[in-house]
Amino acid sequence: MNRWVKGLTSRWTTVMPVLAVVLLLFTWGRELPGAVVAVAVVVLAAAVLAAVHHAEVVAHRVGEPFGSLVLAVAVTIIEVALIVTLMIDGGPETASLARDTVFAAVMITCNGILGLSLLVGSLRHGTAVFNPEGAGAALATVATLAGLTLVLPTFTTSKPGPEFSAVQLTFAAVTSLILYGLFVATQTVRHRDYFLPVQKLGRQGMPVTKVEDEDEHADAPSNRTALISLGLLGLALVGVVGLAKGVSPAIESGVSAAGLPHAVVGVIIALLVLLPETIAAVRAAQRNRVQTSVNLALGSAMASIGLSIPAVAIASFWLSGPLVLGLGNTHMVLLALTVMVGALTVRPGRATPLQGGVHLVILAAYLELALNP
């Protein structure tokens, strides 16, 4: 029976990414009727679950923190492609799309994914334990990237409005890539131990890097299996983001019919795109691997800024119209609150349900203000 269930799981996780890409090819660039939109949403959800499965296979093969990095970078690269595509197709109305999508990703990852993981981990295991050195370094990098690319444009004077001049945009793009590259080198080479899962508290309540669970004792998948899963992960993510773009006109129509701000479209698409990372992070927290969840949450926020801004900067040279990056006052307050609360959360290296709840409340405030600015 177990073998049959395992075989069934293997088959559907192989079929769904391919089906998502096939459906994407048949629907790309076309106006979709309601029935096709419904089918696309179902296939999109199945592709999300398949992506999580294949990400976990790859992560088990390469180990932490490489597993979290693979999923975060893969999702972000395709998210960047989605942003640029929508900006090319959307005209002047998409001037603030990059800002809205990147900020939505930061709020969802730093408050939603992180808060939900801390809440699940602490409720299940008493205390959610992680490495403060790694989490603190990641949060500092996210805060710097967000400040340089999303806050400063509001206060610069070279161009009217919350925009960068060409020189300023180039500087922001280059520094974003440099910071992201430095962080990846720190995470994977020089201080990899700062980003490994921890499961117990040592002296004075500080976390100790030691993992002992079923994943550690299970045999790692072969290179062939990991490569197949990596390819299927890419297909699944292409399908997820592409189908999200396909259903976005229906989402836009629904948002307009409901009289909601256009920025809500970016929030909904960001929620769809980040579903694989959310599910993977929560499942890691359930297994008492909260550091993996933290790596996913903060790593995704960092990749979203560090890769999106350079890509948008390059695209802006042939796109007509302004590129609005600066946040408004309300969003700057939410970003500042996120950074301050995040610093207090990661500093001890352990969290209770309270910290998880606080981050989720900040996310709820962001979503409520997106609906009622």
From TrEMBL:
Keywords on record: Membrane, Transmembrane, Transmembrane helix
Coiled coil: none
Location of the Sodium/calcium exchanger membrane region domain: 35-188, 229-369
PANTHER family: SODIUM-POTASSIUM/PROTON ANTIPORTER CHAA, SODIUM-POTASSIUM_PROTON ANTIPORTER CHAA
Main location class: membrane
UniProt keyword annotation of Acyltransferase present: no
Protein name: Ionic transporter y4hA
Presence of keyword Membrane: yes
Transmembrane segments: 12-29, 35-54, 66-88, 103-123, 135-155, 167-185, 226-244, 256-275, 296-319, 325-346
Subcellular location: Membrane
Lipid bilayer topology: Multi-pass membrane protein
